[in-house]
Design a protein that fits this description.
Elements: H1 3-25, E1 38-39, E2 42-45, E3 48-54, E4 64-73, E5 79-80, E6 92-97, E7 103-104, E8 113-116, E9 123-127, E10 131-138, E11 147-159, E12 163-175, H2 188-196, E13 206-212, E14 215-221, E15 230-237, E16 244-254, E17 257-263, E18 274-283, E19 288-297, H3 300-314, H4 326-340, H5 346-359, H6 365-395, H7 409-427, H8 449-463, H9 471-478, H10 483-506, H11 508-512, H12 520-527, H13 529-547, H14 549-572, H15 577-595, E20 612-614, E21 620-622, E22 626-627, H16 630-638, E23 643-648, H17 653-663, H18 666-675, E24 678-683, H19 689-697, E25 705-709, E26 718-719, H20 726-734
Helix pairs in contact: 4-9, 4-10, 5-8, 6-8, 6-10, 7-13, 7-14, 9-10, 13-14, 14-15, 18-20
Length: about 725
């Protein structure tokens, strides 16, 4: 909304109050023509009629009399519900004047309408036409009068492009009889229709909500197929600052599942455990049913259950990858695994392992081969173990993909500690072993083949954030197949990653080209500490995106405490028994305190940060993009606007490299503007079921994924390569 419109909106809302104040100040000039106008008990207000009515023609002692505040606005005007939207206040009753002993209940609110404000992103929850706000009145059993009189002092807002605020006293008198209540033919049908739109709490629908990136998603499930005939659903929270009603609103409907996603408001309420609200479900005939809902903060088990129902009801997807032959996929897996060795996290680990092999100059050929096989076994078995966990989670309905563990901040923090400690060991702060093969963590310090095995495990863990070229197709195929076929694909993926070291171990000719052992190896070992520190810094940045700067600083402080503990342990090796024991106790306490940060609330996921890029000249600028939403993609394509979708994550190195070298450059950004392409980004740093669904739709279980949707909604989307260059992207734009 423009500043001018916002100012106008505030002015017109405040104008009636200012006018009323002015009128009160001029009470001496009161004109009888300004007095409230009543016609047959109906208050004739500005752009609205208001009256108090009853469902029956009489009142009966001891029985509930249903009354209603009838609000009938002029065409084009509306009143507000108790569920707050972006603006407007609900109608409320200041007070009742009732016979002695009578009690008025609460207003029964019908389901409102989702009403966007023209020319803005504002949305109100309103009644666009005549509405009854039903109120039960308990008539005393000992009431002895002949007439039951009621007066309600009511205040309301009625709005179009401006809002008018009024209040009035409206009254009704009914004869008292001792027989049954007699329905009033003038109003009975309207009361019945209103009662049909009142929300119910007698239902089996369960609600969950989750916050991911800049969105808040609500998931509603029912074992009674509550949404089988639904064409539209809305969720109206009882509080403000829960969701941003417009313009983003993405809806997925299945017979037993309804999912609604909104943008988060600028000042989202924090520490939410439950959200109360109204779920409105509209069927093909336009009839609306309302359900009172208490949505709980989603747990992993809850999300898994919802995803399982959605997966079952959605039916089989388009598994294009299944059409590929297993042999082709195995080739892709080997090539993808081979390229993984060039990733910044994996390369230092591989270099250290090659250094270890070089140090074994006097080892026999058989021993070198065994070290190569142990390293390969570590990689292959770890790939298969990760894949098995992933398949089990997906079979249970969890919306997860490759590198799912990186979506857990505590796991990222653990990797920070691991890389930092490995760097300290390489720098000589603390030696885990006396031989070069003993660098890294204690799991990689033994003198036997265990060191090679666990180095392979470590290499696989640090490679998991990356998806190399050819690897995406292999992963997509594997996760759509049986467990046996999936394990074959992942085993060859691990084999491809282990190939460089395996080739060195089995090829004496290649070993001859390796430098001879010598003092240079100590210098090289110390130099390799710096890539480890760089990896730790990168993971700290990822953690900052996930949990915020406070969590990032907490983990950095814990890493510093680990460094101090290891330094004390190293110093105690030459001290006396007393000092050595004291240093050991102090160091162990420091290590326990440092690791306790993994359980701190500071490591809870938070909102994602806005992205910024660096163009090819090195100048900083803010990248222009919209948060991803499936409904928004559909809306743009139906308007003839092409869309480029970038599915990314902070822990995905390939994603970050593509953004810095291609997508965020001025050349590509300008081409998007020239071609009228809307750029959307889906942030998968933290778990996001909507993004997971899109990845599954295109048989890509992880990021990056780049989708170019033509403006023609009937045309098929184009999948861009996982490694981008400006020319690749510009050529794709030119083909639209």
């Amino acid at each position: 909304m423009s500043p001018f419109l916002a100012l106008l909106w505030v002015f017109v809302v405040a104008l009636p109050a200012l006018t009323a104040t002015s009128a009160m100040a001029q009470e001496g000039d009161f004109d009888s023509s300004d007095a409230p106008q009543y016609v047959n008990g109906v208050y004739k207000g500005d752009e609205i009629d208001v009256e108090l009515i009853a469902e029956s023609q009489n009142a009966v002692p001891g029985q509930t009399l249903w009354t209603a505040i009838r609000l009938d606005p002029t065409e084009g005007w509306h009143t507000y519900s108790k569920w707050p939207g972006d603006s407007g206040d609900a109608t409320f009753i200041h007070s009742w004047r009732l016979p002695e002993g009578a009690q008025a209940g609460d207003i029964q609110w019908p389901v409102p309408t989702w009403l966007p404000f023209p020319g803005s992103d504002l949305v109100t929850f309103s009644y666009k036409k005549e509405v009854l706000l039903m109120v039960p009145i308990e008539v005393p059993a000992d009431f002895s009068g002949d007439e039951f009189s009621m007066t309600a002092h009511v205040e309301w807002q009625v709005c179009d492009l401006i809002c008018l605020i009024e209040d009035a006293e409206i009254s009704l008198s009914l004869p008292v009889t001792q027989d049954a209540l007699r329905p009033d033919p003038q109003w009975a049908d309207m009361f019945a229709a209103t009662r049909a739109t009142l929300p119910t709490d007698d239902h089996t629908i369960e609600g969950l909500f989750a916050m991911a990136g800049e969105r808040v998603s609500f998931s509603f499930t029912s074992n009674t197929q509550a949404f089988a005939d639904a064409e539209e659903v809305w969720f109206f929270p009882e509080q403000r600052r829960i969701l941003d009603p417009g313009p983003l609103r993405d809806v997925t409907l299945l017979p037993g599942v309804a999912q609604i996603t909104h943008a988060q408001p600028r000042r989202m309420l924090t520490d939410l455990e439950q959200i109360n609200g109204l779920l409105a479900v509209q069927n093909a005939d336009g009839q609306v049913r309302g359900y009172e809902i208490t949505a709980d903060l989603a747990s992993p088990d809850g999300l898994a259950a919802i995803a399982a129902v959605a997966s079952e009801q959605a039916g089989p997807g388009n598994l294009a990858g299944a059409e590929r032959s297993l042999l082709t996929i195995i080739v892709f897996a080997i090539l993808g695994g081979l390229i993984l060795n060039l990733m910044p996290c994996v390369f230092p680990v591989l270099s250290i392992k090659v250094l270890n092999l070089t140090a074994k100059g006097t080892a026999s050929s058989g021993q070198k081969k065994m070290h190569g096989l142990a390293y390969t076994a570590g990689i292959v078995l770890t790939f298969m173990a990760l894949a098995s966990v992933l398949l089990v989670l997906r079979a249970g309905g969890e919306a997860v993909g490759w590198a799912f563990q990186l979506q857990s901040p505590w796991f990222v923090a653990l990797l920070v500690f691991l890389f930092f400690v490995m760097g300290l060991s390489l720098s000589g702060v603390y030696e885990f072993g006396t031989r070069l093969m003993g660098v890294g963590t204690s799991l990689t310090t033994s003198k036997g083949y265990k060191s090679s095995f666990f180095t392979g495990v470590l290499a696989t863990v640090v490679a998991s954030p990356c998806t190399a070229p050819f690897m995406g197709a292999a992963l997509g195929f594997a996760l759509a197949q049986s467990w046996v076929v999936a394990m074959i694909v992942f085993a060859f993926l691990g084999l491809g990653m282990a190939l460089p070291f395996l080739a060195l171990a089995f090829s004496p000719a290649l070993m001859k080209h390796m430098p001879k052992p010598g003092p240079w190896m100590v210098t090289f070992k110390e130099f390799m500490a710096f890539p480890m520190y760089a990896a730790a810094l990168w993971l700290l940045w990822v953690l900052g995106v996930q949990v915020g700067v406070n969590g990032m600083v907490a983990v950095a402080s814990a890493a510093l405490l680990l460094a101090l503990a290891l330094w004390l342990l190293q110093k105690s090796s030459n001290a006396g028994d007393g000092w050595r024991r004291a240093n050991t106790v102090v160091s162990l306490v420091m290590i326990v305190v440092a690791l306790s940060v993994l359980r701190m609330p500071l490591l809870e996921p938070r909102l994602g940060n806005p992205d910024s890029g660096v163009d090819m000249s090195g100048a900083d600028y803010e990248a222009s993009f919209e948060p991803f939403a499936s409904a928004r993609v559909t809306e743009l394509r139906e308007s003839g606007i092409p869309v480029l979708v970038n599915m990314t994550a902070a822990w995905c190195i390939t994603c970050l490299a593509n953004e810095q070298t291609t997508l965020n450059t001025q050349r590509v950004q300008q081409a998007m503007r020239d071609s009228g392409i809307t750029y959307m980004k889906g942030d998968w740093t933290n778990q996001d079921p909507e993004i997971s669904r899109v990845l599954d739709e295109f048989d890509r279980p992880s990021v990056p994924l780049y989708i170019l949707y033509p403006g023609n909604s009937s045309a098929e989307p184009v999948i861009l390569p996982q490694l981008l260059t400006p020319s690749i992207v510009l050529d794709a734009f030119a083909s639209l």
